[in-house]
Design goal:
alpha+beta; five-stranded mixed barrel; 30% helix; 26% strand; elongated
Length: 159
């Protein structure tokens, strides 16, 4: 092989190997920061990772909000119309948090099926539903052959 070609080949191989290594390191470091959204149905079906930070969302099931009188601990259930998941949270809830309203929670799903939230996000006006929650509810409504449910207020919580 001609020395100039050999030098170019080595240079190309070096660039390819270095780039692959750099991309691999970036993907590996971002892996812990990827925060995917799961509706309650996937949490119940075991499709969500256990003990990793994820986002979940749904409508707060009326009558499920229970506050601990001694601390800021609160538990409530969220539903997507198909499944319910119990969420525990320790802290001050957003002012707009209410039963029958849409929420998105960041936290970890544990092996026993409970969800421990580190952050609770509530809707910011009466017509708003978080996009992930609205999309999930729309898919579930279509799968059941019923008309899209626009808000948590008209959702059937009997699931």
């Amino acid at each position: 092989m001609h020395p100039v070609r050999k030098q170019r080949l080595i240079m190309v191989l070096f660039v390819v190997i270095f780039s692959s290594l750099a991309i691999s390191l970036v993907v590996y470091s971002l892996r812990e920061n990827i925060n995917l959204f799961y509706p309650p149905e996937k949490l119940v079906n075991g499709e969500a990772p256990i003990d990793r930070t994820i986002r979940a969302g749904g409508c707060v099931v009326p009558g499920t909000v229970a506050r601990d009188p001694e601390s800021l601990k609160v538990s409530f259930a969220i539903s997507d119309g198909i499944a319910d998941v119990t969420v525990t949270y320790q802290g001050i809830l957003p002012d707009l948090f209410a039963e029958g309203e849409a929420v998105v929670v960041n936290g970890q799903l544990h092996g026993d099926g409970s969800f421990e939230a580190r952050e609770v996000l509530a809707k910011h006006d009466e017509n708003y539903t978080p996009p992930e929650v609205a999309e999930t509810m729309k898919k579930n409504a279509e799968a059941q052959g019923i008309e899209h449910q626009k808000a948590c207020g008209v959702m059937n919580y009997g699931a």
